[in-house]
Design brief:
Blueprint (H helix, E strand, L loop, with lengths): L22 E4 L9 H8 L5 H9 L4 E2 L2 E2 L11 E4 L15 H9 L1 E4 L3 E6 L15 H8 L7 E2 L8 E7 L2 H12 L4 E9 L8 E3 L2 E5 L5 E5 L7 E9 L3 E8 L6 H8 L13 H9 L7 E9 L5 E5 L4 H23 L1
Parallel strand pairs: 8-15
Antiparallel strand pairs: 1-4, 2-3, 2-4, 5-6, 6-8, 7-8, 9-14, 9-15, 10-13, 11-12, 13-14, 15-16
Amino acid sequence: MSQKLPPRRPAKMPSNDSKPAVQWLDIGEEAAGQRLDNFVLAQVKGVPKSLIYRVIRKGEVRVNKGRAKPETKLKLGDRVRVPPLVQARKAEQPVPGSRVQGVVEAAIIYEDEQMLIVNKPTGLAVHGGSGLSFGLIEALRAARPEARFLELVHRLDRDTSGLVMVAKKRASLRHLQDEMRQKRIRKVYHALVFGQWAASVTEVDVPLLRVETPSGERMVRVAPEGKASLTTYRVLEIFAGYSLVQASPITGRTHQIRVHSAWAGHPIAGDEKYMDDGSLKAFRALGGQRLMLHARALEFTMPDGERRLFEAPYDSEFTAVLERLRGRALVARSGEQGR
C-alpha cells in the first residue's frame, strides 16, 4: 500500500518582518556604566518596556553568558546577549530640515570633546514627543550624523530660551547629571514679571504638585502635598508695570520658576499657563509675543575638573520688549520734567 505524501508547500520568501537573530554586543566606552535595562532598550527601539524586563528576568538577556538583573551596571569589555525581539513598526519620523539644523548649530555657544552648550531659541522643544516631530536634540543629531553619542543633560520648557547642556560622551553625561543631583550646578534665569517685585522678597519656598486638568492639560500648582521647592530671587530692573528679576532654582521642579513667580503675585510676562487673561492681554498690547523667561547662565565643574561660567545673551524679541519698556520710562520722565 502506497503511503500518501503531504501536499508540497511553496518555500517562504525572506521577509523584512522576519524575526531578528540573537545579538552579542560588546560594551565599549560609551555604554560602560549604563544599566542593563536601559542599554537593551536603546538597542531595540520600539519594543515595549514590559517585554524587555520579562526577557531579562527569564535570563534570555545575559551578560558574559550569565544571568543579570535590570539594574546591573555594565562594564567596559562586557558581552551582552540580546535575544530576538520583534520591534513594533513606527511611522517614518520627519527629519529636521536644513534650516532648523542651521539655527541649532548657530546657537551653539561652546563645544569641546566632552560636551556642547546651546542657547536654545524660544519655541523649540528640547526633544520630540507630545505631538512634536522633533526638537533640539533631534536637530543636532540630524546635523551631525557622524556623532556617536549626543544626549541631553537636562531640559528646558519649549517656550523658555537659553542654555542647554548636551553630552557627547556617556562619561560626561554621568558627570554632569551627578553634578545636578548633588546641586553643584548653579542655574541663573532672567524673567520679566508682571508688577513691581519687592526687593525684600528674596526667595519663594512653597511645595509644588503636578496635576492634570479635566481637558488633559498638564499643570503645576502650589499644594501642601507637593514636592519641596525653593527659588531665590533678585530684582535687576524696575519698569512701569513690570520687573526684570534674576531667579535661581535651588530645586528642579517642572515649571518651578513660572509657578513660584505667579504664586508671589508676579506671573512671568507672556505665560499663557499661569498669567491671568487681563495681564496677558496687556502684555500682548505692549508687543510681547513670547514667554519672557531666559536661562541666562550656568556655572559648574566641567568633566575635566575646571569650574566654568557660561552666559547666553537674550534673543532679539526679549531685548525688544525690554527696550520698549525702557523707552516708555524715558518718555514718562521727560514728561515729568516738562511740567
